[in-house]
Known about the structure:
With 146 residues, the chain is α+β, with helices and mostly antiparallel strands. Helix content is 14%, strand content 32%.
Amino acid sequence: MNMWNLFEKKERKEEHRIFSCSIHDDVKILGHVFHGLKDIQAYVEMTKYDGGSGDACDREPEKKGKVHVGELWMRYPCFDSSDYLYENRAYQNFIFRDRPITSLDMKHLEKLPTHMNTKRLDASVPEDMLPMVYYEGDGDTMWVAI
């Protein structure tokens, strides 16, 4: 198991910042203010199921703007038929670009080291993959790296 040192410098021109905030908080990413997690989800234009064999799929975003969002997600584990019927939570990793998201962006995201609950966000994320947001699917906290 790897131990991740958030303060270790890895030949970066500029150290990125990782912080947590409420899923209801406004977050400014690439000059655009997202009004919480639901607003981020509304901008997703490409999505990929983590571990799925298929390619990322284009999706018509509910909202459009100058910032483009890609999502790598995995459904919460289901153990019985009731779970399959009612479980709607998912682990979600989001990437942001000032240009349309490409399938190559999604492949790079999927290849990042995976931590518990399909989390890709940590201090070792290369600068070209930032900014990113991670949500564990439950609770009030999301993680942001800029």
